[in-house]
Specification:
mainly alpha, 2 strands
Length: 137
């Protein structure tokens, strides 16, 4: 009879990539590297990044796709921690106003007017509309 010891194996999938790990310490290392610590300072940092949209738009060289992806990740991280931000739309529009392309900028005032007239407009349709405009360039 052969002495066989079965090691626990864990399969990690990310997109189209898949990796099976049979080593407990390696798995622990991967888990520790992926875990976000939810502390008051982390929440404060995320809240502050959500108020500096104009700076982030410039940082992404006015690339609307990268900007929207960044904002979505920040909002998801904030919500995963049980926190919220009440002024996401105001800051989102602030970020879009920082776009430097003069032709693109003409689409921003109507969005601001729509938000001012109907405060129930949400970030998703706004981001999608800006994304569509950016892709048609």
């Amino acid at each position: 009879m052969e002495n066989s010891r079965i090691e626990p194996a864990i399969t990690i999938k990310k997109g189209t990539h898949e990796k099976t790990i049979e080593d407990g310490p390696t798995f622990l290392k991967i888990m520790i590297s992926q875990i976000t610590i939810d502390s008051r300072s982390t929440m404060t940092y995320m809240q502050s990044t959500l108020s500096d949209h104009d700076k982030h738009m410039v940082r992404f060289d006015c690339n609307v796709t990268q900007f929207n992806d960044f904002i979505k990740k920040q909002i998801d991280a904030l919500q995963a921690s049980g926190e919220t931000s009440n002024n996401i739309m105001v800051n989102l529009l602030k970020g879009y106003k920082a776009i430097t392309d003069s032709q693109f900028k003409q689409y921003i005032p109507p969005l601001i007017n729509e938000y001012d007239e109907r405060s129930n407009i949400t970030k998703e349709p706004c981001q999608e509309q800006i994304q569509d405009i950016g892709q048609s360039w």
